[in-house]
Each structure stands twice: as C-alpha cells, then as structure tokens.
Amino acid sequence: MLRVHDLTRRFGRLMALDHVSFEISAGTIHGLIGPNGSGKTTFFNLVTGFLPANEGKVFWDGRDVTGLPPHRISRLGLARTFQNTSNYARLTVRENLVIASRNHIESSALARMLHLRSARSEEARHGRSADALLERFGMRDLADVQAAQLPGGTQKILGVAIALSTNPRLVMLDEPLAGLNTGEKAQLMTILRGLCADGLTLLLIEHDMKAIMQACDRITVLSYGTLLAEGTPEEISRDPATIKAYLGTEVA
Amino acid sequence: MLDINVMQIVINFLSLSAFYGLFAVGLALIFGVMKVVNFAHGEFFMLGGYALWLLLAAMPGVPLWLVFLIALVAGPLAVAVLGMLVERLIFEPTSDNVFGGFIASLGLSYVLQAVAVLCFGVVSKSLPVMVPGQIQIGGGTLTYQRLVVILGAVAMMVALYYFLYRTRSGRAVRAASQNRDAALLQGIDLRRVGLMTMAIGAAMAAVSGVLMGSVINVSPYMGLEAIWKAFIVVIVGGLGSIPGAIVAALLFGLIDSIATTLGYGQYVVIIDTVIMLVVLAFFPRGLLGREAPPLDQGQVAADDAGQVRPSRAMAGVLALAGAALLAGYPLLASPYYIGVGILFLINLILVISYRTVITMGGWSFAHITMLAIGAYATGMLQSRLGLSFWAILPLSGLVAAVVAVAIAVPVMRTRQFYFFLSTFAAGEAIRQCFIQFRGVFGGIEGIPFLSPPEDLFGLSFMDTTNYFYLALVVCVVSGCLLYLFDISRTGRTIRAMSENENLSGAIGLDAFSLKILAFALGAFFAGCAGSLFAGYNGFVAPTDFTTQFMFKIIAAVVIGGNRSFWGPILGLLVLTLIEELLIDANQLIPLFWGLTIIFTVLFIPAGLEGLVSRCLARRPLRKWRPISDRRDRDATRA
What we know:
The complex is a heterodimer of chains A (252) and B (638).
Chain A: E1 2-11, E2 14-24, E3 29-33, H1 40-47, E4 55-60, E5 63-64, H2 70-75, E6 78-80, H3 93-99, H4 109-113, H5 117-136, H6 152-165, E7 170-174, H7 182-197, E8 201-205, H8 209-215, E9 218-223, E10 226-231, H9 233-238, H10 240-247
Parallel strand pairs in A: 3-8, 3-9, 6-7, 7-8
Antiparallel strand pairs in A: 1-2, 1-4, 4-5, 9-10
Chain B: H1 6-34, H2 41-58, H3 64-91, H4 98-120, E1 134-137, E2 140-143, H5 144-166, H6 168-178, H7 180-185, H8 190-213, H9 222-237, H10 242-261, H11 268-282, H12 312-332, H13 335-358, H14 367-385, H15 389-411, H16 416-436, H17 438-441, H18 464-487, H19 489-499, H20 501-506, H21 511-537, H22 547-560, H23 567-581, H24 589-603, H25 607-616, H26 630-637
Antiparallel strand pairs in B: 1-2
C-alpha cells in the first residue's frame, strides 16, 4: 500500500534518514520504533510532504507521490497526526472535525464562498458524521467545547479524530499514546484496533513497547537513520540488533 | 562602449553599504532578541539627524568637527535612553504578543514623526558639510564625509562584535536571541537584556542619523525613506541575522551604486524590490535566516476573549440602523460633509476588505497599493480605451486582484513580519513605478481630467449627493458579499487555517491557495474602491496613496479589533472622528492616531469591538467547566 524506496534526508551533516526502504501492507497495524533521534518523525515528514527528501521515492498505491505538498498527500487518503497536540484551539471539537472533513467536500467552491444552501446542508451533514465519530471516541459530550479547554490527553485523542475525519485509508500516528493515562491508552488502542478491523491501515510510532508488541502485525526498527530490523513482534523482540540499540552493548 | 568609472562604483558601494549596514544591523539585533520588528527604528535615525541639527543651532561659533563629535556621542546617548523607555513602556508589556508590539511601534513611528513636525517644522533642514574636503582614488572621488560614514560603520561593527562575542553581557544577548526560555532558565535577566538591546539598536540608528545628517537633508520623514531600505536589507539577509544583514547591506550597496552610477538612480526602489521578491521566492526566510522551526509545533493557545458574541439579531439591527443613518446622511449634511461621507464610504470598503485579507494570518501593507492600482486602472481604461465607468468599476477590481496574485506568489511563502515587510516594500515599488514610468502612468502628476460616471436612470453623478448614494450602494454590496464570505465555510476555514498551518496541510487544506484567495478577494474590493476614488476626485495622483493612508487602514483594524466583521468599521469611525475634529490642526492627526493605536494595543488588545461585544453579549447560558484545574493546565503548557 505504502512503499518507500531508499528514502534519505540530511540535516546539514546529520544523516536523519539513510536509504530506508520498506513496505506497509493494507489492513495491518505497522509499528515504527527506534530510540529517540532515530528518524521516525523525519520519516513521517518526508512521506507526508512536510519535508522534501534528499533522495529516494515514496509510492502510494503504486503511484509516485514523492515531493507532493502535504494537502495533496492528504487528499490521496494518507492522514497523519502530530507528536504534540495539534488542533484548532479556538474552534470547538465538532468544528475541528468539520474543518478536517475537507476531503469529503462535494459542493462547488462558489457555494462554499457565498454560504449557499448546498454548502450549508453539506456542512450540517459533516457535523453529523463528526458527531458519529465522536461517539466512537466517547467524546460526544465534548462536541461543543473549545479545543483549547480540553485536558492534554483528550486533545491528543482529538488529534487522532481529526486525522480520521479526512477520509483516510492509511493513518500515520506519531506517538499517539504519549501523554495519555493508562485508561485513555487502553481506550485509544481499542478504538484503533476497531478501525483496523474496519479495513483501515495504521502506521504507529510509539515508545510504549507493551502496546506496540500487543497491537502490531509488523514492526520496523530504525536506529540513527538506518533500518535496523523488520518483522513480526516475536521476531523483533528476539532480534539482537534491536536489543542492542535499545539497551546498549554489555560491557564485558 | 560605456564609460564606466569602476572606482567610483566601488567608493559608492562602500559608503552605501556602510550606511545600510549600520542602520539595518540595529534592526536585526532588536529582532533577534525581542522577536519584534521595531517600525520606529527609522524615527530613531531621524532623531539622530535632528540631534546634530540642534547642536549646530545651539553652539554657533564652535568648530564644526567638534560639534560633530559631540553629536556623535550625545545624539546616540539621548536616543538610547528613548529606546530604553520604548522597551519598558511598549515592547515589554507586549512581549507575549509580538505583533501587538510591532503595531504599537508603527503607531510610535507616526507619533515621533508628528512630534518632529511640531517641533522642527515640515521643511527639511540642510546641514553644512561637517568634514569638508575630498580625495581622489584611482579616478574616483571620495568625500571625507563619506569616508567618515564608512569608518564610523566599521568602527561600530567592530565594537558590536566585541560586545557580543567577548563580553558577558554580549553572551547574554546572544543566548536570549537563540532561545528566550532557555536563557531565562539559565538565570539571564531578560528585562535587562531587552533594555540593553534596545539601547544599542537605537543608538546605532542614531549614529547613522548623525553620520548621514549632513549627507542627506534632515527632515521628519527621512526615517520613513531609510526604514524602507532597512526592511529590504533585513528581509533579504534574514530577519534577526546580523551577518545576514551585513551581507545584504553589501549586496544592495553594490546594486544601488551600480544603478546610480549608470544613471538609473530613480529606479533603485523598483530594482531592489524585484531582487527582494526573487530572493524570497527561493529563500522565504532570507539568505541567512534561521532554519525553519521544528515542523510539528501546533501551538495551542487558550482563547482569552472567550465566546462572547452579540446575538446575530443585534448585529443585524445595528447594521440596518447604520445603513439607514448613512442613507439619510446627505439630507442633513453640507456639501463639504457629503464629500467627507464619500471618502468615509471608500475607506469603509477598504477596511472591510482589509479585514478579509488579514483573516488569512498576514497583515499586508500593500492594501492602499491595491486601491492605487484600481484608481490607475480606472484612469487608463477611461483615457486610453474610453470605456464606460460602469464597465471599468469591476474591471479595476479585477486588475487589482490580478496584480495581487502576481505579488502574492513570492510573498505568500513568507510569514508574519516577512509578509508585512515584503508587502510594504512591494507596495512602495509599485508606487514608484507609477511615478517613474511617466510615459505610461503620467509620472508625479498622475492622470488628470477623468470624467465622472455616465448618467444612470437619469441620475447625474456630477452631483455629489448622487455620487454619495453610488458609493453607498457599492459599499453595501461589497459589505454584504464580504460578510457572506466571512461567515461562509471557506471564510471560516481560512481563519482556522491561519491558526495552524501545519495541521491544515495534513488535513488536505491548500493553505497557499486559500491565502491567495483571501488576498486577491481583498484586493478586488480595494480595486473597486480605487475606481470610486478616482471617479470622485476626477484625477489619479501617486501622492494620494501614502503610507499614512495605509496606516489609517491598519489603525482602524487594530483600534476596532479584527475578531469580528464589525470591529474595523468601528475603528474607522473613531479615526474619521479624530480626523474631522482636528481638521484645523492636521499635523496633529497622525499624532492622535498613533497615540490611539498605542493605547489600544497596550490596554484593550481585543479592540473596541471586544469591549462593545462584552457589554452587549448576553451571558452564555451554560458554561462548560474544564475537568482539570486551570492552574494545572498552565503548568503543563509552560
């Protein structure tokens, strides 16, 4: 579904990502792990068009999407979340999701600019789908609350809901569990597994090893910008290079 | 074969670069530390010039070089004290809202200009040559005056380098400029660093003022001309980067000296702007600007103003009452006040469309330029092609929108201050085009003898009352369309997008196109207003489209508040009242406008509209209480 080939990005002399190639197959939960600074978020930024790649290609459904701007990538059905909370702080939760429904728009641009009936009824429809999505996230009561007033963990979950509103087929989640309490973590993981069962593909950056090992079908390990290992959770947990990268070498 | 005096080019290059560098580095230093562009920097420069003039007047008979030396010490010292005062009174209170600080400094710039006009008169003072004499080097002439400028600039740069890299205080300044929070955690007193930076920056501007005072004439508006160049230099160099400012100063010194020596001096503004636009198209942060901040920093700012809004019915009633008042206005007013009313309506279209522009997150300084383009389009379409006014009115808007899109493509990649400064430069360059290309645009005289709109339904628009109603109709139609846009899905999306551009890209919004849409839409209505303006005046002159006019539009939006559609209208009303009350003392107008703007930024940041709607709004019936304690949230954010 998503395939990257020799993806490379340098920041000055630092090699943030060094000829990384791997593939994510449809309908799976794919984990991307690695110590801090190993290039995971850079990978996200390259794939979603936020940063230009120095070398390499990104293929989405067999189509070369390297170098497309973020909004084009998003319109192709590839959504992402951000590591820190990111939302429209002044809008309510529902408005956030409606804005993010841009990829569902069918009314004409003129109708949307002049606030015509067709645009208004379409927006109302998007509001109802937003409510349905909030129901799934257990946030129905918060629909009319301003995003800035939500506690940090809820804002994090709102970020995932925003990404889901864009009609994606693949969602790339950048540390969705960071900053959540245990209950919220379990709730979010249940929701994510449910989404996957509905046919959505997920790519997950996460430091919570327990969650990663439980949820993922496949895991890719990055370290200092290079691909260290790839395989099922069992293979990864036994992989010596991964263990070394995480725990360091034993001093003999 | 052209006879080019290479040595003269080199000499001019050095002296121009020295001046640009000296002036722009102060601006870059202040930006680097305080993250705010000090618009009043040009006025510090101007005050340096007046310091020299005052000392000359106060010390007759004293040798010129001695007065010059005294001025070189006393002028910068006095201005440095003023700079510290400005830091304490304006920039420090607005440090959490750098754009507010910038707008306040814009107001301050007008206040200082007005004060200079009041104290010293509008007429520029020409000073005697301080250091007479010149030398010939390789066929080029170097006056000692210019040599002093070059040496002074080099000395200041060396002193600045020593201060920044060899002293403890300098290290604190550099630390604060890299990361204010980290500097604070290291125990650096940011207030002290701020004061120090402002003092140094202001003093450097004043030194250049004293040095240049006898080279160019001293006038209240010399700062405005100088700051234009400084903006171009710091934008191309990269805001806040001192090496960048020096490199760009050298670049523009070279370009300007070549252009001037070859006899294209009058096109310098245009040439420089084109270069700036080209640089921005490739380096949106300037040549040596810092690497873009980390990408996924979605800022989450709690909303202070809250959701208090007057009900829609209330707003509708007020709008109707306002329209009825305007419709009845010509029946009560004298012909003079009908004229004032027409200009008010044209300004009204301008402020409403300007608000549409700023909803996309960038404060343009080229809105009056769009008015000018509309007016010129009207003049040319009428005098060259003989089209009817009724066809010209929308066409003028269209021309302005097309020009807006053309400037927007390089400029829109920039953000915040870059956007403001580059539109400022682009606007000035377009105005220069109107003045310099005489054959096409009629030069400084503009396009005279335009006929008023053709009769419609038996109404003659020679009659000012009828023209008033024409302006009213155009104004109401524009207002309704822009209001619809404001509440439409696209309008709200643009406002949200300006809040968080990264997220907008991630959810499929094309921020670039949305911004251009808002910019071009605003330009369209400004262009239509320009058509009305030209039709009313019966001529088009480049001198009508001044920075002060632009300042009025910005001031209206700041004073009224930009959160709602109605704020700028309220602001314009206040400004027009000030203007009409002071009609007999018109040099006081910018002074009061400036003071009002500073007052607004400092004490009512939401603008008058914020105040009014808080009074009008019914209390919301249910107020949602956050689960967590507020203090707790602040702690996690900080």
